[in-house]
Amino acid sequence: MFRILNLFILFLSATIIFIGCSSTETFTAHQKTSDIEINGNLSGWPSSDALIHNSDSFDYYVMQDEQNLYVYVDFKSPFYNHSIENSGFIMYISEDEDNKKRRGLGYPSGAFNLLREDPASFRDMTRDSDWLNNTQNYRRLESLQEENFNQVMIVERYEDTNDAQYGFVTFAQIEAEGLELAAARDRRYYGLEFKIPLDQSAPFELLPGKKYWIGFAIEPPEFNFRNTGDLNQYSSQYGNRRGVNPRNRPSSSNQQAQLRRQLGQYEQWFLLELN
Known about the structure:
Helices cover 28% and strands 27% of the residues.
């Protein structure tokens, strides 16, 4: 069975889906006192001091020195571990509370997002409820999953629109800006490690002595199927297999939101103060 199907099976056993947070946690980054290697592992991290948030799904660690901000994301949930293979994992950092998602870094990119480079196929996937029934399309997503860690996704939203723009850059381009990224893939669940320079380098342009909103998100695509019946069929087949009672069927917009939750939609924010 394809891994994309495993995601929907795992959804059935998930008891809590984090799609936001009721309040924002504020913290000051722990000061790094020893060298660490950016390799996707927590070895070398003062884990008890750098831990800023833990849950059944993720643990987040943050620290800094005079030159860099360091972030580690430890995955603990099989549901979200599979979700990012298709929808990717995005870290946002912004000084502007009203535009927190102005720019983000996606790593891994996610097969759905990599498909955006073929606009016609991506449009078909999000508009045709039968698209994922095609074995060739399954295999294509499987192939794209293998490319998840080969490049980095840049997500941008401009002030006059909520629509995101997606682009992909090589590791050489990221490293030229002083960024380092690594993933632990040889373990049960993923571990992601980031080293971000505290200067005006793209994409985040961080500076010491300021406060920043830092967020972590899984953002499945928006689906615009032809009618509510298609949404129900898609949700029933690939998400909640019990389906929806036709006598109590949610609206199309509610079903689209339900489908995105079944694909792992997630968002968590913190307010970070840099020294």
